[in-house]
Design a protein that fits this description.
heterodimer, A: mainly alpha, 21 helices, about 0% strand, disordered C terminus, B: alpha+beta, 6-stranded mixed beta sheet, 4-stranded antiparallel beta sheet, 34 strands, about 25% helix, about 30% strand, globular
Chain lengths: ~400, ~1050
Amino acid sequence: MAVELDVFVGNTTIMDEEVYQLWLDGYTVNDAVKVRMVSEGMEEYEASAEVVMSDTMDQYRTFQMCERLLHNPTKLANQLLFQIPPHRQAMLIERYYTFDDVFVREVLGKKLSKGTKKDLDDVSSKTGITLKSCRRQFDNFKRVFKVVEELKGPLVENIRQNFILSDKLARDYAAIVFFANNRFETGKRKLQYLTFQDFAFCAGQLIKNWTVGAVDNMVEDMDVDLDKEFLQDLKELKILITDKDLLDQHKSLVCTALRGKTKVYTEMETNFKNLSRGLVNIAAKLTNTKDVRDFFIDLVEKFIEPCRSDRWASADMRLYLTHYTNSAHLLDTFKYQVVWDRYMGVIKSCIFKMYPQMSTFSTPLSGIIDQRFVHVKRDFGPLGRLSIFL
Amino acid sequence: MPGKLKAKIVAGRHLPVMDRASDLTDAFVEVKFGNTTFKTDVYPKCLNPQWNSEWFKFEVDDEDLQDEPLQITVLDHDTYSANDAIGKVYIDIDPLLCSEAASVISGWFPIYDTIHGIRGEINVLVKVDLFNDLNRFRQSSCGVKFFCTTSIPLCYRAAMVHGFVEELVVNEDPEYQWIDRIRTPRASNEARQRLISLMSGELQRKIGLKVLEMGGNAVVGYLQCFDLEGESGIVVRAIGTACTLDKLSAGANANAYTHPNTAPASNACNSPSKDSKESPLAHGCRSTHNSPVHSTCSAQRLSQNFSVSVPTLIFAGMGSGGSVGKEAGPLKMLLRQQTQTALEQREFPFFTLTCFPPGFLVHVGGVVSARSVKLLDRIHNPDEPETRDAWWEEIRQEIKSHAKALGCHAVVGYSESTSICEEVCILSAAGTAAILNPRYMREGCLDIGSGDHRFDEPSPPSCGFCHIPYDELNMPFPAQLTYCYQCRRQKVPDVLFTTIDLPTEAAVSGKGCLIQARLCRLKKKAQGEVNATSISNLLPFMEYELHTQLMNKLKLRSMNALFGLRIQISIGENMLLGLASATGVYLSALPTPGGIQIAGKASGDLSNEQHVLSIQKRINDAMAKNKEMYHINPPELSEEAAGSPIPEPKQRSRLFRSQSESSDELSELDLSHGKKDAFVLEIDDTDAVEDIHSLLTDAPPPAGFYSCNTEVMPGVYNWTSGLQMFTSVRVLRLSNANLTNQSLNKIFTDMCENLLKSLYFKLRSMIPCCLCHVNFTVAVPEDELIQVAVTAVAMSFDKEPILEKLGDRAVFKGAGENEDQLQFPMELCAESASVAISNLTAKFTGVPEYAGGPSRATSVDYGSFADRCSTWLELIRLKAHTIRRGSVKTSRRTQSLARSVSSSERCSPLPEGRSRSLRSTRSSGGGGGGTAVTVVKMTPLSFLPGTRLIKYLGIINMFFIRETTSLREEGGVSGFLHTFIAEVFAMVRAHVAALGGNAVVSYSMKECVFMENPNKNQAQCLINVSGDAVVFVRDTDQEATPTLIHTSCGGTDGPT
């Protein structure tokens, strides 16, 4: 006796959110059944494995049939095949496009190419996320990227409208697209402690202030490409470190403002020139695509690490950067106030975000350990073991 | 030139990519009606073309309008090679031909291809201008309304019920024509779809003509079936009930039915109680079936050489309508005569309705059925479908005579079905013998306004329909009668089986439940006549066993009546499958069922004795549990009130009548198992063991679930608007070649049970909920395969049942007064139940002493005369099997269309003006190609809880074929069928939305034929669905609660 065929079709498409999540997470039907059998509430229905299996298969099939539509969420609303109440549609889309922060950290800034896709099995074994789920998430990134690549208008808005996502998710996707487009390096060990949300915040800042869209909001790629003119202008900031007088003047203005307000005043004074050189050099080099990619690693190496090794608290760092930025306005011979503000505004918010809390920075490996923890936690899932490979 | 059909192609969307090079499509559209074809321009390189075509006009006869569908083909233009078809849309024009239905068809239709499924959508506008045609010899029947609903549609009033209409048309099946060898599967499928569409149009037109001849204007309970007879062709046949319907205006609402005139009938028959005939057998079930199947052997050869007529289970009944009349009072006689004149002029006094206006149904006799086994032969002349006609005629005559034997002049809840395997075909017909009130069948007798003084009398007793229609001295079959537990004046059987829905006025204790009997019988593979003979030999045994199973299961649930009974027998190459489904209830008017007693044969054996005891205990426990689960709480009557028991020779020793229940009362309800005449099961062979086993293995539905196969669940009233219609299909492959009947039975039973369990699990989020109109169909598609398909609707309801509490309280109170007012509790209970059903609670709740009204008075008067013979009434089922080597075929399964009256009170239709405006706003929205998809609800029931149906837009009757040559790629057989069923739903919804509707009621899937060939990676499936497209509005008069249910967000909500 074998069940040859077993289907259930409702006029209103029935979708169980729990099963949907298992499907999204890339569980096979058999694994999903195991998970469901031990999840709470099942005894109530005296559900036998057979019943749960049948239900799970049905749901998986439904999801597979829907997947085509989820690739083009605007179709979901006016397709006729499935009658799904609007709030369920929203849930389906939102969950489909939701990604694992651990996963996105692995591919953030990488080119969304076939090559990267081929490496996903490494990512999968590293993160403990099933390959299937990795592929879905990767394909989502790629799909969103392709669609918005050639659209005019604000990036976040385009994503939201074309994929009917929540504002939060649309912003995250904007960050992913922005990183992928500019190929920012995020995978270096020194950057491991940063979460996707840290990067997403920085991306938001960059998009808002440094892209073409910040000045003109009707160009193609306006939010994806950095404003070339602005980058060119940044070269002028070099005067702050090349002009000895200006540098000294700047230093003394900052020191005056800082004196007595922080425990690490001495370190600040000592390091001022170094730090200033670091920040201004980053600015000056941004015309090179290669250096744009290293933007975050540079911020860490040139600014965050020196401060950390001097044990600046984040309040100290904030104080320092605020005065560092503001003091430049007092320099008579410094003519590039507008560019300086546009530059330092973003740098400040990024560094504020990226500057690690005491505890997490005690070891440079902390980021990796975080991930291991996640990995281990997943291993303790109800299955005891995940089937990672399809 | 009586009609002008106009069509406009507006736009397409989501078209498939037809040109790989550009990833785009150069689409254009062909619009075809009859032999005329128009084309739109090519809209180049676009997947969302905007054709915005001119109006294509077809000038056609209305006959063609009825027969032909509008055929829209979307193609991809190709300069160098032939244009590729993307897909087609068939639009049935019929709804536009009726002034009261839709006025325009406008909306997005899925573009369907039989190989690829749905491929994008197309926006179409269709209108019809009809010219009046006064030609009385016309061939068309435009304007006759068709309803699948098997009751008077909610916004209509039946001025007259004319009766049975039937028709069938036959044709060759394109799939079996020689040309099929050289054409593509697509072409062959499309030819078939088109042919069936044409045939059903023609059939509908012919039926319409018959209705017009009878003076009617509508067909209710329209049941159309296809018999795919393979080599021998296609038969499309339909039956229905012709009626004259008046649209209810706002003023005259459903109250028209509230004063049925049945008083004379029920009052007349107070013939003194006589000793009811003693049936020599205490266990009715066995006894009624002991009529031997001897006649099988004495097969008479009819004029056509190979036919054998085999009446198997006809009981001794000689009682004819006439003889009953002698015994009855003069009023009853008069009634009978009137009715007879009204009915007898009809060839077949059959009604496909299952639910009736109150008062229409006077008495119900029992189920009548007939089956006949035929050998199919090629249809030689499609224009002369006489062989098939003759076959059905024969069966109908059989049914008619069975009804007569039951003292009934009519058959209600009538349906016909077929099962075909190769060249053998079983034709089946079944219905419920009944006596009807003739008022509805005479012209001009329905003047509601007339001040007939009878209307001032109290409503007729709600138990009237239970009273026996036949002569108790001359019973057509051994049955045991007792005085009605409600009115105490007339005799009722102890068990009642019917194919209709529970009448709204019926008093019921507790809830109902789905009861199924399942059976497999192996048979040898054989050919032709030998095969037909062996099948017809098996049939009576199968019927008998199904019947026994039903009876056992009914007893086990402490219930005494079955409604909506539907017995399906399917033939396969090497087995027969039988499935009987019905809804069991406890009718307050019928006696409390006795218990089930197990008797061991070898009484000397101690271990056996213990075994028997333990089974007995399990059964008693199960019964007690069931009583509790279904809230069956019938008031106990003390013996004195019930009258002296009639001594019965075969009573069990445990039936101590003297045992006083009045002191035990409610606390020990299950005592009643032992005190009544018990139903005895003897464990003397393996069959019996198996019976008992299957009796006890049926799992009850999980907490919070109820199920029934009728329109509504007795005892559940406060529906919310949350509903979910679904279809589930399972196919099981039998791997073991050496199956026995027993193991096969087990497999089949488990399959059905597991399917139900899966449904409960899937729908758990809707708890508390009831699966209504659960409709199982079984088939044996291939040698080793069993296919079960279920369509049903899950409806959730509010937990706190105010009405139920009221009922409980009443019973409790009544029990306290048991000593002096013995009938009181029952009356109360009955009243409250019936009140609840008719939604009239408000009227009564404030008047606790209402039991002192006339009905109680009468019950007290008659109570002391009531005699209490606990008996068994066997349902009547009669049948005949005829083998005939003849011509063609038919294969269809019955579909039971059902309906309910319970919401009729709620349905006060809007004034016509308002519904118009509704329409117009909608169609303007639709024309603009709005993005929001209208939510279309579907239900197999005739109503939607919490809403009022304000308009019927026409019948939906669609037939689709889907085929694939890449089965694995489409997700295997399950993936293939899942997609196809979803596509069928989508197409039904789209058509309804385009007509301006927002729901389908009385939906049913009448056919689901699935064939696969996994080795070739191929599969094919045919689905036929039907229903009534309607417009509903939320019942704002009701509390606000029902409007906010998850699956049912308002029609045009945009995405949130």
